[in-house]
């Protein structure tokens, strides 16, 4: 490619903070919940590179046409690939695109078309812009995408310097499936792979049933598999809890051993998994290889937000809850976020 920057490039990252940082002229943007992607365009050539520097181009053919129409012939743009559903952003629809069958990708491109939200400009023409302050890169990006408006498949992310408005975004935009708020210094150069921005996300807690665990790729327990009871008193898989130290992973194996299924025990997910009651492992409805446990243990976990009946990201373990009866762990305890239209986000 005839560009001042060549793929792959690690995207600039953000470090997590619990409170909105306040400083003179900080720039706040919604934190999108999609596939982070850097777009490289050189004439008729275009490459979409993922956060892990893996090519995404073949999975989003409809987006190539949209980006070709919106972007100049030589540029590098950082942003997020999204799919909008009836209830806001649909991350599950994005995951379905990562498939080897071209026919499936083509069908999904028509049924659930993707879009791209741009939030940084790394190169334009023959110029490498990474050394410029962010406020200058943003101004160039706004000029570059000035013809893109609400409803277009390529748009520029909203931005504000008003901390009160950013706090309002943090509260309300979750209803559209967004992931929080990002704060950036206006003087910030683009630093690939460095955590030099701030991200502010929601954190809530829930008491969940430990229905099993997955092995770590090295040793011990990699993650706890969590469930909650629905209104019909059916235990539903809601996510996983991970992030244990190497020492703690090994300790958990012994702590969970007394809960292993015994002869004649039937796990609530047996029918869902399609295996016999004496099987030591199976794949759950989330395609996770599971070491099933008698669902009697309860733990409190921290989570940011939910998508449908699942936690959107892996939760963080907080503590055991021996005082809680597993059957009392229901969806009723989860906060319900009022949905809003994505158009309202871009209206700001």
> Beta-strand level of the residues, as a percent range?
25-35%
- Do you know the CATH topology of the largest domain? D-amino Acid Aminotransferase, Chain A, domain 1
The CATH C-level class name of the largest domain: Alpha Beta
- Number of individual domains: 2
How much is the radius of gyration in Å?
22 Å
Low-confidence stretches: 272-288
SS-based structural class? Answer: alpha+beta
Number of helices: 8
Number of strands: 20
Separation of termini? 36 Å
| Quaternary structure type | single chain
By CATH, the architecture of the largest domain is named: 2-Layer Sandwich
- Average pLDDT figure: 87
CATH homology superfamily name of the largest domain: DNA ligase/mRNA capping enzyme
**N-to-C SSE string, H for helix and E for strand:** EEEEHEEEHHEEHEHEEEEEHHEEEEEH
Shape: elongated
Sheet with most strands: 6 strands, mixed
Keywords:
single chain; OB fold (Dihydrolipoamide Acetyltransferase, E2P); 5-stranded mixed β-barrel; 6-stranded mixed sheet; 2 domains; 348 residues; alpha+beta; 34% strand; D-amino Acid Aminotransferase, Chain A, domain 1
Give the secondary structure arrangement, pairings included.
Layout: E1 13-17, E2 27-31, E3 35-42, E4 45-50, H1 61-70, E5 74-82, E6 84-85, E7 88-89, H2 91-97, H3 102-111, E8 115-124, E9 127-128, H4 134-144, E10 154-156, H5 163-172, E11 180-184, E12 195-200, E13 204-215, E14 221-229, E15 235-242, H6 246-256, H7 270-273, E16 282-283, E17 289-303, E18 306-307, E19 310-311, E20 315-320, H8 342-347
Parallel strand pairs: 1-12, 8-10, 15-20
Antiparallel strand pairs: 2-11, 3-4, 3-5, 5-8, 6-7, 8-9, 11-12, 13-14, 13-17, 14-15, 16-17, 17-20, 18-19
């Amino acid at each position: 490619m005839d560009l001042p920057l060549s793929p792959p490039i690690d995207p600039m990252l953000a470090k997590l903070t619990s409170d909105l940082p306040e400083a003179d002229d900080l720039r706040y943007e919604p934190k999108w919940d999609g596939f982070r992607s850097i777009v490289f365009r050189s004439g008729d050539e275009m490459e979409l590179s993922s956060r892990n520097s893996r090519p995404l181009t073949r999975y989003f053919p409809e987006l190539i046409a949209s980006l070709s129409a919106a972007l100049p012939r030589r540029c590098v743009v950082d942003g997020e690939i999204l799919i909008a559903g009836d209830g806001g952003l649909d991350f599950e629809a994005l995951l379905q695109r990562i498939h080897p069958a071209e026919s499936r990708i083509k069908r999904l491109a028509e049924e659930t078309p993707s879009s791209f939200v741009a939030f940084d400009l790394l190169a334009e023409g023959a110029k490498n812009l990474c050394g410029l302050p962010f406020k200058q890169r943003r101004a160039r990006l706004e000029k570059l995408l000035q013809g893109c408006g609400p409803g277009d498949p390529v748009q520029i992310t909203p931005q504000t310097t008003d901390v009160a408005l950013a706090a309002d975004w943090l509260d309300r935009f979750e209803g559209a499936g967004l992931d929080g708020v990002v704060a950036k210094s206006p003087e910030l150069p683009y630093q690939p792979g460095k955590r030099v921005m701030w991200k502010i996300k929601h954190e809530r807690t829930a008491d969940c049933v430990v229905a099993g665990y997955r092995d770590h790729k090295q040793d011990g327990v990699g993650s706890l598999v969590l469930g909650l009871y629905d209104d019909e008193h059916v235990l539903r898989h809601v996510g996983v809890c991970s992030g244990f130290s190497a020492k703690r992973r090994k300790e958990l194996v012994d702590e969970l051993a007394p809960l292993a299924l015994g002869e004649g025990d039937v796990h609530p997910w047996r029918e869902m998994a399609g295996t016999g009651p004496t099987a030591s492992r199976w794949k759950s409805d989330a395609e996770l290889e599971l070491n099933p446990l008698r669902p009697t243990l309860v733990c409190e976990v921290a989570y940011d937000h939910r998508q449908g009946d699942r936690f959107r990201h892996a939760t963080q373990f907080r503590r055991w809850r021996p005082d809680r009866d597993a059957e009392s762990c229901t969806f009723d305890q989860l906060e319900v976020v009022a949905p809003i239209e994505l158009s309202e986000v871009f209206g700001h």
